[in-house]
């Protein structure tokens, strides 16, 4: 039973957050044309984009919506199909 629960929750999380990642990708691609971004440099390995307040809000709302969706779906599956 535990293994099935793990697999189902992992699959649900993957699918929901993959869709979320696609939305984040499109938020970035379809930004409002702001080219003057702030970056944080990480040891010459990478630079992190610091989003504007508007971008940050869009990302936060998207993550909250999909986290809630994952919680509802996982709870439903556990309650109705695994107990």
Proportion of residues in extended strands: 5-15%
Total domain units: 1
Share in helix: 55-70%
Which consecutive residue ranges, at least 5 long each, have pLDDT under 50?
Answer: none
Tally of helical segments: 2
> Looking at the chains present, what oligomeric state does this protein adopt?
single chain
* Total number of strands: 2
Main β-sheet, in a few words? Answer: 2 strands, antiparallel
Radius of gyration: 17 Å
Account of the 3D structure:
With 83 residues, this protein is an alpha+beta fold. The chain has one domain. The protein contains two helices and two strands; from the N terminus they run H-E-E-H. It has helices at residues 2-29, 53-82; strands spanning 38-42, 46-50. A two-stranded antiparallel ribbon has the order 1-2. Helix 1 (2-29) packs antiparallel against helix 2. The radius of gyration is 17 Å and the shape is elongated. 1% of the residues are buried. The mean pLDDT is 77.
Keywords:
alpha+beta, 83 residues, single chain, 70% helix
Quick structural summary:
With 83 residues, the protein is an alpha+beta fold.
Secondary structure layout plus pairing:
Blueprint: H1 2-29, E1 38-42, E2 46-50, H2 53-82
Antiparallel strand pairs: 1-2
Helix pairs in contact: 1-2
